[in-house]
Amino acid sequence: MTRPEPVLSVVVPMYNEESVLPALASRLRAVLDDLGETYEVVAVDDGSDDGTATALGGLRAGWPHLRVLRLRRNSGHQAALVAGVLRARGRYVVSIDADLQDPPETIVEMLHAARAGDLDVVYGVRADRSTDSRFKRWTAAGYYRLMRRLVGKQVPAQAGDFRLLSRAVVETLRELPEPAPVLRLVVPWLGFPSGEVTYHRHRRAAGRTKYPLSRMAGLAAQSVTSFSAAPLRFATWLGLAGVVVCGLLVVFTVVAWSVGATVDGWPSLYVAILFLGAVQLLCLGLLGEYVGRIYTVVQGRPAYVVATDTATDQDADGHTAASRGVGGPTALADSLR
């Protein structure tokens, strides 16, 4: 038997967050219990290898609103986020990280703003990032400037994955063919009525960051290549620039030869070969990024595979928890939803 649809779903992707779970559960439950609305908390365990799964099981024993969605392997923050959002059942769906840098108390403001303004999307916008390192603030600012130039000004600055979505937005996301869309870009692109709620970003409550420089760079690359062909145009312009420079070098070489100023000639030839080789390799690398994405889509592999979902023994599509747990065709098809 499927439970009644809750008013609010709160999706929390997490990976190795055992140390922060007690504080998260305490603050989040206090906020949601006082809200006076039916709710569910969808904790997406992204293949944690610490005690996160055990801790979630213990919390769920005393918190019936907690729903644990466990992925078979670590699929990445964005994939875990998409898995939780697409499987959430609430009329409104809020996504928030587990580290408590985004305050759960802001969820109340988001819900009120959505209802008062009849909004489908409410972004949590960071008004203060003083708790982040200078390098983190600098790279984040660069990321948002780049995304706003590529996607458009509808992408709110300083808005990460802390947002509220209506059921209409979630259903639209479910229809997209992308197995793992970057929600912070796709959601603004959809064009639903939106608003903002500002908040002050806090320090991580416990544990270590799960977004080191390598993952930040990976997110930026995924964002650019999944949402813009600008790098391909950059490769084209770079190739044209290389042709112009080589043309100038040819003119210079002819003039030097005509006045008898050529001696060995190998330095200019060496530089020209290096320059052309660098341009060609860069262009091939950019093309490879897009070809790689095409290859991934053609393969049809899901971005994540769900192992278990504690919500019900049978979901709305009639797939049992046991069939989802085997990781066969049923699980793969369900993961692509």
TrEMBL record:
Question: Mainly resides where?
Answer: membrane
Q: Name one GO molecular function term.
A: glycosyltransferase activity
User: What does the UniProt keyword field contain?
Assistant: Glycosyltransferase, Membrane, Transferase, Transmembrane, Transmembrane helix
Glycosyltransferase 2-like domain residues are 9-173
Q: Give the span(s) annotated as Disordered.
A: 315-337
Q: Which Pfam families match?
A: Glycos_transf_2
**Per UniProt, what is the membrane topology?**
Multi-pass membrane protein
Q: Which GO terms describe its cellular component?
A: plasma membrane
User: Entry's SUPFAM superfamilies?
Assistant: Nucleotide-diphospho-sugar transferases
Q: Where do transmembrane segments lie in this chain?
A: 234-257, 269-291
Q: Which Gene3D superfamilies match?
A: Spore Coat Polysaccharide Biosynthesis Protein SpsA, Chain A
InterPro entries for the chain: Glyco_trans_2-like, Glycosyltransferase_2, Nucleotide-diphossugar_trans
Compartments (UniProt record):
Membrane
Family in the record: Belongs to the glycosyltransferase 2 family.
Which protein is depicted?
Dolichol-phosphate mannosyltransferase
Record the organism: Micromonospora echinospora (Micromonospora purpurea)
Q: What is the lineage of its organism?
A: Bacteria, Bacillati, Actinomycetota, Actinomycetes, Micromonosporales
